Structure to design on (962 residues):
C-alpha cells in the first residue's frame, strides 16, 4: 500500500504499520527526539511550541475562571504518599524513588511526584480554616514521572508534562460542578483548538483515578480505531479531605469536611492530535495550535524582487496570523515536501509569475488543495477564513470517521467481532467489574466511559450482554492507548 | 529599634534581625510556604505570579533574538554526567540520585538534573552536522535540584526554578558574543523590571562555573550589605564540544569543533528583589513585576455607590495596568496594613467624600506618600506615570545605597575592616587563588567579579594588597549569599 511520491523524507504508510508511521511522524516532523534515558523524550522546538500554545489557551481559560497558579515541590516523602490508601495503591508501583542526596543516603526516601494530590492537600490543611477561605482553586504547570514499561513518544512517557488542577470546596456539589466545568474546558481545547471530536462521560469504578469518588473522561478515536483518554477530571469527594483532616468552620462556626477535585491535561494530547489528523506525507497541524500557520515558499527566489515580496507579504499577514518565510537555499520541491512533513496548515507559493499576475497560490495541508488568491489587502481576511475552514474540515473529517467507527453491539458475539474490527463499541452493561476483567482478558478492550449522550437512555428490560443481569449503563468500550 | 506601628501582621524589623525579617516577609506576604521536604518551598499564587511575569519578560526577549524553547528530560544517567571532568567534579556532591523505579532497582542510577549542559550537548551532537546548522540557540524553563545543606526561601532551595539557555556556535568569538548578549539581557531584567542596580563583570577562575572557560556575573548588594549573584552567563569554550565530540563541516567541508555557551536566571532573583526593596511593613514590589499594580480599597463600602464606583474605576484603569478591588468585609485599616504587607505599588483609597469631591487618594507603597488625584479620564495617565516614578525612585534608592556601600581598600588592614562593615570592597589583586582562599578563611568574603567598569583601570605599579605581586584586577569583593 505504501505509495512512493518522492517526498524528501519517506515515512512508513499509516495503513501499513500505524505504530511505525506514528514514530516516523514524531521524529521526522522534528516534534521530539529520544534521550539517553529510556522512556524520556526531548521535546524539540516545534513540540515545545505546541505545548506552550496549549498552555497559553488553558492558562487563559483557568485565570478567567478564577484559578490561580502555584508551584509545589517535585518530591513527596514516602510517608506523605502513604496517607490516602487507594491513592498510594494505584501509584506506588510506578514511582521513581530518590534515595541519595550527594553521597549521603536519605533518612526517608522521596517519590518524584506521579501526581500531586497529597502535596496540595497537605498545603490546603495549612491554609484553609474558614468558609471564607473556600473555594481554593489552584493549578500548576509541571512535569510528573511514572515508571512505565512500554513507552511511546507523547502517548506514554516516563516523564510527561501537564497541568494539574487541585481545588477544595465546601460541599460535594461544588466539587462536582468544578469537576464538570473543567471537563468542559478540556472539551473546548480538544474540539476548538486541536480539532479532535470528544466523547465525554463517566469512568467505571475500575477505571477511575486512584482515590477518586468519580472520574470523568474525554475519549476520542485515533485513525487506527483505538481509543485515547485525552483528559480526565476527578471528583475526589471527601476522600483526601478526611485522610488529610482538612476542615473549615462554616458560617455557624461548626467544623466541616472539605471536598476536593483534581483534573489534568497532558502532552499526551499532542500524540492524539498526530494520530487523529496526520497522514502519509507527515504531520498535519490544526490551524489554531500550529506555531506557524502559514509558510511562505518563494519560487525562483534568486530573481529580483521575489524575496522582498515574500517578506513584504509576511509583514502584511503577521498582524493576523503566524507566518514564516522559507528562504533557505533548497529547491522549491524540497521545501514543499518539508512543509508537508512539518504540517504547516497553509503553504503560500509566490514566484515572479505570481507577482506579475497579482496572485499567490495557497496550498492546504489537510486536503493538499490549491487555491489561487489575489495578492492584495484582502488576503489577510481570505487566509483567516481559510484557516477557520481548515479547522472545521479537519474536525468534520475526524468526527465522521469517529461516528462511522462507533457501533452498538446487540449480542456478546457481535460485541467481540466489533471490538476486533476497531472503534468504539457501545453495549449495555450491569456495572459488574468481573465483566470488565473478562472482556479485557479476552479482547484487550476496556470500558472507556458511560457517555453523557447515553446517560438518559431508557434501559428498561435491557440486559448486560455478558452476564444477563439488568443493564445500568450503555457503555463505550474499545481497545485503547 | 523595632517600631510598633499597629500593622495587621507584625514582622521582625530588618535592622534587628535581617534573616528573620526576610523569612517573615516571604511567609507573611504569602509568596511561599515551607513544604514537608526539607529545603523545598511551595510557591504560593503571588510567588508563582512573580516568576510567571519574569518568565514572560525573558521569554519575549529570547524569542525576539532568535532563541527557541525546547524541553529536556529531568534525568541524567550517571555515565553521561561523568563526561566533562570539571563539570561533574563541581556538581556531583550536590546531586539527588534516583535508584529505583517502582520496586525495581535501576541498572544505572539517574541524577536529577542540577543543570543540563550534558543533555543539551548529547542532543547537539545528533542535530549539528554542517555550518548551516549553526548557531543553535536553545532555552528551557524547568526546575533543577541541588542538594543543599543550608537553605533559605528563594535564595537557596533544593529545587529551584530557572531558564537555562544552551547555545552552540561555529567560533569562540560567537560564543563570547552570545554570553555577553545574554548577560546584558539579564541586566535589563534586573534594572528595568526588578529595579535592582547591577555590577556586571567577570568571575575569577575559582568562582567560575564548573566546566566554563569564562563566567560573567550580575552582582548586587542587599539591604544588609551582603552581595547576591543574581544571574550568570558562561562561555564554555570548546570544553563540552570536545568532551561530547560535537563537530560540524565548515564551508570548505572541513570538520570543526563547536563552541558552546550557557546562561541562567532563577527564582533566586525574587529573593534579591525582596532583600533590596522591602521594609518593616512587608513586601515592596517593583511596579513592572507586580502581579497587581494598583489595589483599590473602598472606604465605607456599605454606603450606596462606593463599591460600584470602585469597580467602575477598576474597569477604567485595567486597560493600562493590573488592578484589583479589595471588597472583603475587613475594616479599611486592616486592608491598608495587608496591602502594605503584600507590597502593591499603589493603593487607591476611595470613599463617599472622595467621590463627592471628585478625587481619589493614591498611596505609594515605596515611600508611603499620599497623593490626591482627580477622579477623571486623566487618572490612567497619572497612575501610569506614578508607576514609572515609583520604579525609578526604587532603583535610585537601591543604587544610592549600593554606591554608598561600595568602597575602595588601599591596604590589607583597611580591606578587612571594610569587609566587616559590609558592602562591596574594591581592591587590586594579582589573580592568585591562594589569596582568595586566605580571604575567605579569614573573613568569609569572596571575589564577586572583575567589573566591566574597572577593566580599563591603569594598574601600572599597583600591587596586590595581600601578596605584593603586580595587580591585574581591580576586583569587587564581599560577603555574599
Amino acid at each position: 500500500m505504501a505509495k512512493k511520491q518522492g517526498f524528501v523524507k519517506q515515512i512508513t504508510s499509516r495503513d501499513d504499520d500505524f505504530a511505525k508511521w506514528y514514530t516516523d511522524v514524531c521524529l521526522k516532523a522534528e516534534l521530539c527526539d529520544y534521550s539517553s534515558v529510556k522512556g524520556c523524550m526531548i521535546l524539540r522546538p516545534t513540540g515545545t511550541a505546541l505545548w506552550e500554545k496549549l498552555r497559553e489557551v488553558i492558562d487563559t481559560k483557568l485565570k478567567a475562571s478564577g484559578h490561580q497558579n502555584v508551584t509545589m515541590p517535585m518530591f513527596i516523602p514516602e510517608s506523605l504518599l502513604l496517607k490516602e490508601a487507594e491513592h498510594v495503591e494505584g501509584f506506588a508501583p510506578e514511582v521513581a524513588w530518590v534515595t541519595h542526596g550527594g553521597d549521603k543516603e536519605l533518612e526517608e526516601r522521596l517519590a518524584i511526584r506521579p501526581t500531586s494530590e497529597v502535596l496540595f492537600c497537605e498545603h490546603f490543611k495549612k491554609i484553609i480554616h474558614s468558609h471564607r477561605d473556600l473555594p481554593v482553586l489552584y493549578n500548576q504547570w509541571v512535569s510528573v514521572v511514572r515508571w512505565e514499561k512500554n513507552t511511546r513518544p507523547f502517548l506514554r512517557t516516563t516523564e510527561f508534562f501537564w497541568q494539574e488542577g487541585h481545588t477544595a470546596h465546601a460541599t460535594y456539589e461544588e466539587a462536582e460542578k468544578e469537576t464538570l466545568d473543567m471537563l468542559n474546558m478540556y472539551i473546548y481545547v480538544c474540539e476548538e483548538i486541536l480539532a479532535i471530536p470528544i466523547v465525554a462521560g463517566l469512568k467505571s469504578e475500575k477505571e477511575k483515578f486512584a482515590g477518586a469518588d468519580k472520574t470523568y473522561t474525554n475519549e476520542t478515536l485515533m485513525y487506527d480505531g483505538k481509543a485515547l483518554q485525552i483528559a480526565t477530571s476527578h471528583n475526589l469527594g471527601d476522600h483526601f479531605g478526611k485522610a488529610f483532616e482538612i476542615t473549615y468552620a462554616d458560617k455557624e462556626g461548626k467544623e466541616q469536611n472539605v471536598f476536593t477535585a483534581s483534573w489534568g491535561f497532558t502532552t499526551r494530547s499532542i500524540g492524539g492530535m498526530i494520530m487523529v489528523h496526520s497522514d502519509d506525507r507527515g504531520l498535519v497541524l490544526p490551524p489554531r495550535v500550529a506555531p506557524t500557520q502559514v509558510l511562505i515558499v518563494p519560487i525562483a527566489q534568486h530573481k529580483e524582487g521575489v524575496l522582498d515580496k515574500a517578506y513584504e507579504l509576511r509583514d502584511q499577514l503577521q498582524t493576523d496570523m503566524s507566518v514564516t518565510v522559507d528562504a533557505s537555499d533548497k529547491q522549491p520541491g524540497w521545501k514543499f515536501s518539508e512543509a508537508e512533513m512539518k504540517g504547516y496548515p497553509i503553504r503560500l507559493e509566490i514566484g515572479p509569475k505570481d507577482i506579475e499576475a497579482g496572485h499567490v497560490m495557497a496550498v492546504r495541508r489537510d486536503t493538499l488543495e490549491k487555491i489561487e488568491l489575489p495578492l492584495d489587502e484582502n488576503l489577510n481576511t481570505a487566509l483567516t477564513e481559510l484557516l477557520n475552514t481548515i479547522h472545521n474540515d479537519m474536525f468534520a473529517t475526524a468526527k465522521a470517521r469517529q461516528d462511522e467507527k462507533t457501533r452498538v453491539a446487540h449480542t456478546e458475539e457481535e460485541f467481540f467481532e466489533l471490538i476486533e474490527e476497531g472503534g468504539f463499541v457501545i453495549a449495555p452493561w450491569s456495572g459488574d467489574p468481573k465483566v470488565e476483567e473478562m472482556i479485557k482478558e479476552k479482547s484487550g478492550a476496556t470500558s472507556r466511559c458511560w457517555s453523557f449522550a447515553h446517560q438518559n437512555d431508557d434501559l428498561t428490560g435491557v440486559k448486560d450482554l455478558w452476564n444477563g443481569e439488568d443493564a445500568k449503563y450503555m457503555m463505550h468500550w474499545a481497545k485503547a492507548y
Observations:
- Chain B has three domains: 18-277, 294-390, 406-478.
- DSSP finds 14 helices and 23 strands in chain B.
- The first helix of chain B runs from residue 18 to 28.
- Residues 294-390 of chain B form a domain with the Rossmann fold fold (CATH 3.40.50.800).
